Amino acid sequence: MKELIRIDRIDEFLSLDIKAWIKCNLTNPRRFAKEPVDWELMFGGVCWYIWKARNAVVFRDNAVLPQRSILEQARAWVATVAVAGPTMEQPRTSSGNHQRMRLPWDPPPYGWVKINTDAAQGQNYEGLILA
Fold it and tell me: Can you tell me the distance from the alpha carbon of 106 to that of 86, in angstroms, rounded to the nearest whole number?
């Protein structure tokens, strides 16, 4: 945890009620994060990998530790999503740095339906699954 959370905010990070904790982490990344860039992705990734590890123990009786730590898995996932996500490079600033801007999701025009798909597949699945 000390790799992710500012040491001066750790007590507050651990003492908030769940609703405030989630809201604060998703809306104010500079409050707790040591590295606030892509914090909403890192926060979500860490929560997701903790959930997956918990489910492996509960549902598959798989108490074996993963080959990579939850933090390593989340960092790899964030790096992939940050590169592959819908962004638009902005011209270099006067300091020579690029700025990234996330492109928003736009709803379809009235009367149309937008379907997001996933290419996930497995042994036990046949056909297309829509969620």
Answer: 12
